[in-house]
Each structure stands twice: as structure tokens, then as C-alpha cells.
Amino acid sequence: MPEDLYYSEEHEWVRVEGDVLVVGITDFAQDQLGDIVYVDLPDVGDEVQAGSVVGELESTKSVSDVFSPVSGEVVARNESLDGASEVINSDPYGEGWLFKVRAADDDATAALLAPEQYTALVSS
Q: Among 26, 53, 98, 124, which residue carries the largest CB count within 10 Å?
């Protein structure tokens, strides 16, 4: 599990890249879902609120909501997932990112979990 990310209790991760936050799902989440076959993501320009449902992932096992771990404006979505959603399973922390948000405030990651806190959450 990458040490340079923040994590949500809903199993999303956040990477800070300047004033943009990249959002994806954790390896734990993709493992629980199984083979992901369809992705529904927020559109560029959408305003998202931390903790709100912004999309869904469909796998061979179930359909799972995608929550935004931060509030702000969606500035990019991973269009390459439209035809290759399985990348989320093979590379959840890299090419399998979901969307990018320009944060609504400077301390957008303050309510998120540090890597060791997330590890404790999934270990319990």
C-alpha cells in the first residue's frame, strides 16, 4: 500500500498533485469487488461533496458505489477505463485512477486516514 496517499473509510485513496487531488480505489477494494467490468464516473465540471456517491463500479460479483473522499470540482476523469475497466484490478494505484478533483479548500485531506490508520481499518 503506497505510503504517500490518504485513504477514506469507503476504500478510496487520494494522491495530492499540486492543487489537484487524484482519486482511485484501494487494492483492498478492488480485491473485494473482483473483476471490474463497468465504471460510471462523475463528469468533468461536476461539483462533488466529500462522502457523497459520485459513481459506481460494476464487477462480476456486485455493483459498488464510488464515494468522493473530498469536496471540489471534477477536473478530469480516467476516460481510458471506458473500454478497459480491468485496469483498476491490475493497477489500482497507477493507471487505474478514477477521477481528479480541484479541492474546495486547502485542508481537503484533513479528514482522511493516514496509511497506518487505513491498514488498521482493513485488518480489523
A: 98
